[in-house]
């Protein structure tokens, strides 16, 4: 039996199976023009890029963050961009994700001021660097509060209004490290694993309410994430790492986040092939994965010694 014959035999069933899978999983595209989107961590980096993408797509953008001057700067840039529809100006919402008790009331007040939040982008976050043995519990709590509990508090506050409205989209900006953990990132990886799991559970719970939940897992992005990371004692790391410098453009990642809402995706993994393969390897062959991670830890130990 020749190769062409084999292809013809398996090609038709395979093609039909792919077609059935597409039909089964396909969701109608969501029209987001005129919708209000709340973006946490919108004062710089990926959050700023997301604000521009959603603004250009016709959304009313609410910029959330702690730095008033930076939020004003981003708002000014948005006002200079053209958008296809809604002429309502972007809004600013000062929020400190470490102040958990204030977030529910702040979201309620925001909704009273600007109306319903149709799209929530949980983007704010802080990274970490350092050995577990040198990392204080206070530093761990800070990372977990910003990356998990603060986002959960905002999500729960927005979610109740989305449930009442019978629609909504929630995007959790996780990380490749929400799927795999690497040395000297224990606090960050732990927070992103928990962040990812929270959104996965939420996705299943609210599916029947016409509320979409997507988790986006980017690899390294050209932002100040490593510079703004905290070390084991909670002090600033302040180093721009090569992986970050050579990472993806925030504009590209922001575009994929926008599409994840429009196309109602469940999960998006962004990054080079070897990072995606690492996720598969962690599942299929933990022995090989941890052999590689041990080598990585040994080769970079000096870089992440206490207080760097």
Characterize the main sheet. Answer: 7 strands, parallel
Report the strand count.
7
Strand content: 5-15%
Low-pLDDT runs: 18-25
**Mean of all residue-level pLDDT scores:** 89
Protein architecture, described:
This protein is of the alpha/beta class. Helix content is 51%, strand content 12%. It has a 7-stranded parallel sheet with strand order 3-2-1-4-5-6-7, sandwiched between helices. The protein starts with a helix and ends in a 9-residue tail after the last helix.
What is this structure's SSE topology?
Layout: H1 3-25, E1 36-39, H2 45-56, E2 60-65, H3 68-80, E3 91-94, H4 100-114, E4 119-122, H5 137-165, E5 168-173, H6 186-206, E6 211-218, H7 242-245, H8 250-262, E7 267-270, H9 273-284, H10 286-299
Question: Summary?
Answer:
By secondary structure, the chain is an alpha/beta fold.
Descriptive tags:
308 residues; alpha/beta; seven-stranded parallel beta sheet; 7 strands; 10 helices
């Amino acid at each position: 039996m020749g190769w062409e014959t084999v292809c013809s035999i398996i090609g038709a069933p395979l093609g039909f199976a792919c077609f059935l899978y597409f039909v089964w999983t396909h969701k109608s595209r969501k029209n987001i023009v005129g919708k209000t989107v709340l973006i946490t961590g919108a004062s710089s980096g990926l959050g700023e890029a997301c604000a521009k993408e959603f603004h250009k797509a016709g959304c009313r953008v609410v910029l959330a963050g702690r730095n008033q001057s930076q939020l004003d700067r981003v708002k000014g840039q948005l006002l200079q961009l053209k958008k296809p529809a809604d002429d309502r100006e972007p809004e600013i919402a000062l929020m400190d994700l470490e102040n958990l008790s204030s977030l529910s009331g702040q979201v309620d007040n925001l909704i009273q001021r600007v109306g319903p939040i149709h799209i929530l982008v949980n983007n704010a976050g802080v990274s970490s660097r350092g050995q577990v043995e040198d990392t204080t519990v206070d530093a761990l709590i800070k990372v977990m509060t910003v990356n998990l509990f603060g986002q959960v508090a905002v999500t729960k506050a927005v979610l109740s209004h989305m449930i009442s409205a019978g629609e909504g989209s929630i995007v959790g900006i996780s990380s490749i490290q929400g799927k795999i953990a690497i040395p000297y990132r224990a606090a960050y990886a732990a927070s992103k694993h928990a962040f990812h799991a929270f959104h996965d559970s939420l996705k299943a719970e609210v599916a029947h309410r016409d509320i979409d939940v997507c988790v986006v897992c980017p690899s390294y992005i050209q932002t100040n994430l490593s510079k703004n990371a905290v070390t084991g004692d909670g002090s600033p790391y302040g180093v721009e790492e090569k992986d970050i410098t050579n990472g993806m453009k925030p504009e590209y990642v922001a575009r994929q986040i926008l599409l994840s809402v429009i196309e109602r995706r469940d999960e998006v993994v962004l990054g080079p092939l070897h990072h995606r393969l690492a996720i598969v390897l962690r599942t299929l062959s933990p022995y090989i994965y941890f052999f590689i991670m041990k080598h990585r830890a040994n080769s970079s130990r000096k870089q992440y010694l206490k207080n760097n």
